[in-house]
Design brief:
The chain has about 55 residues and is mostly helical. It has 3 helices and no strands. It is about 85% helix and about 0% strand. It is flat. The protein starts with a helix and ends with a helix.
Length: about 55
């Protein structure tokens, strides 16, 4: 189950990066950057690396 969650988070991160690279709207870039950071922190928590997720 943990592998499924981590793979889902990584897929969402890849999707966010692709959309981030293609957008021209500054507000969308800021929101997508925040979303990417949130997904990265969530992936680190799912991998039991809470100390890495907090930095």
């Amino acid at each position: 189950m943990e592998t499924l969650i981590v793979n889902l988070l990584l897929t969402l991160m890849m999707l966010a990066v692709v959309v981030l690279a293609r957008t021209r709207n500054l507000f969308a870039v800021i929101v997508l950057s925040g979303l990417y950071s949130f997904l990265m922190a969530t992936a680190m928590v799912a991998l039991d690396a809470v100390d890495v997720a907090m930095t």
